[in-house]
């Protein structure tokens, strides 16, 4: 099969070629619960750029060359002898984690903390290819209204945004405020989820005019340009006290300190993006009683919930399609901020 393969890291992201489009061996059924999916779409994520940079070398045990791509959807191509819930030809979306289902975390539905798991595209071969090996437990059948290429990025970007927005929505009331920092690939989904799950006023902060326009299209009530005065602007919109919840999809540079400054006392700061540091005197934590919440990608049931919202038209993805052979262009466009929403590779 054809695949876009990572052969070497590039810490400066300056090489002409990040991945190499080439022939590789077809995946094989090994375990009775294995499923081979013919890829209909593979999302291109900023995490993939971090992988190219080598940031994940200390986090996962993976040897180059390997295939990235952790946002995948397509059609069932082949099944192991123990698979019963899907059949060849079924359109499916893949939860990004493949687990055994036997550990206590799995049984509690806490997929991301399973003791026995694989993460295609992170610690094993992923979906920047024509075919992907996953597990039966990871698959959700798609309704006729949703095509694989249109929903693939929901499996990480959408699911991560959904998890954070769902957490925030549980304590947001009408008349309250929630700030979304970053209206890109994750943020534009988070805005829609907030609109679907709660009645708080949504304020979106971003440096990009394109992203702010997308935020408006997705239902933001207020937009604030990230021009250095965003904290003051948010405080003015919220009556001087800040927002009850801030969801930070950037998580690096000045975004962290500014996000905390936008959070009112006893409010919640949800950190989703990464790369920066949270530096806060302990006395400020005590006197403000702010809660800082980390967010991994969501669970299998949360992906089912997100697909229900998408099926009803309450959430949609802004996507830009690329051929699999153009994976380098997709990665470079993402790196240089030229992608509105999410990039998707189509084999």
CATH class of the largest domain: Alpha Beta
Percent helix range: 25-40%
**Relevant CATH superfamily of the largest domain:** Medium-chain alcohol dehydrogenases, catalytic domain
Radius of gyration: 20 Å
Strand content: 25-35%
Structural class: alpha/beta
Based on Cα principal axes, name the global outline: globular
- Kindly identify the CATH topology of the largest domain: Quinone Oxidoreductase, Chain A, domain 1
Low-confidence stretches: none
Please tell me the total number of domains: 2
Secondary-structure element string: EEEHEEEEHEEEHHEHEHEHEHEHEHEHE
Number of E strands:
18
Number of helices: 11
The major pleated sheet works out as: 7 strands, mixed
Family: Belongs to the zinc-containing alcohol dehydrogenase family.
Keywords: Metal-binding, Oxidoreductase, Zinc
InterPro entries: ADH-like_C, ADH-like_N, ADH_Zn_CS, ER, GroES-like_sf, NAD(P)-bd_dom_sf
Protein name: alcohol dehydrogenase
What does this structure look like?
The chain is built from 11 helices and 18 strands. With 347 residues, it is an alpha/beta fold. Strands 3, 5, 6, 9, 10, 17 and 18 form a 7-stranded mixed sheet that branches. The protein has a 6-stranded parallel sheet with strand order 13-12-11-14-15-16, with helices on both faces. The protein has a 3-stranded antiparallel sheet with strand order 2-1-4, with no helix packed on it. Its EC number is 1.1.1.1. Pfam families: ADH_N, ADH_zinc_N. Keywords: Metal-binding, Oxidoreductase, Zinc. Its cofactor is Zn(2+).
């Amino acid at each position: 099969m054809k695949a876009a393969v990572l052969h070497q890291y590039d810490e400066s992201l300056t090489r002409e070629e990040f991945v190499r489009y080439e022939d590789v061996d077809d995946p094989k059924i090994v375990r009775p619960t294995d499923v081979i999916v013919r890829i209909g779409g593979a999302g291109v994520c900023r995490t993939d750029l971090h992988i190219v940079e080598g940031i994940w070398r200390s986090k996962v045990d993976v040897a180059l060359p390997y295939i990235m791509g952790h946002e995948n959807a397509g059609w069932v191509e082949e099944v192991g002898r123990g698979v019963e819930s899907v059949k060849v030809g079924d359109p499916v979306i893949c939860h990004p984690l493949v687990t055994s289902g036997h550990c206590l975390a799995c049984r509690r539905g806490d997929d991301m903390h399973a003791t026995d798991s694989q993460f295609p595209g992170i610690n094993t071969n992923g979906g920047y290819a024509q075919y992907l090996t996953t597990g039966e437990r990871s698959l959700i059948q798609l309704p006729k209204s949703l095509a694989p290429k249109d929903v693939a990025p929901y499996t990480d970007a959408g699911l991560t945004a959904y998890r954070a927005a769902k957490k925030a929505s549980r304590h947001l009331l009408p008349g309250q405020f929630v700030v979304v920092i970053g209206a890109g690939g994750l943020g534009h989904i988070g805005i829609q989820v907030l609109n679907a799950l709660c009645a708080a006023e949504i304020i979106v902060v971003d440096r990009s005019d394109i992203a702010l326009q997308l935020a408006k299209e997705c239902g933001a009530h207020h937009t604030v340009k990230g021009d250095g005065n965003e904290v003051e602007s948010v405080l003015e919109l919220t009556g001087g006290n800040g927002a009850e919840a801030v969801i930070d999809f950037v998580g690096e540079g000045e975004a962290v300190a500014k996000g905390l400054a936008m959070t009112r006392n006893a409010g919640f700061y949800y950190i989703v993006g990464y790369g920066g540091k949270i530096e806060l005197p302990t006395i400020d934590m005590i006197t403000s009683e702010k809660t800082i919440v980390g967010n991994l990608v969501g669970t299998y049931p949360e992906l089912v919930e997100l697909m229900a919202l998408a099926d009803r038209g309450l959430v949609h993805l802004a996507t830009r399609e690329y051929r699999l052979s153009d994976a380098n262009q997709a990665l470079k466009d993402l790196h240089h901020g030229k992608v509105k929403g999410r990039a998707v590779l189509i084999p």
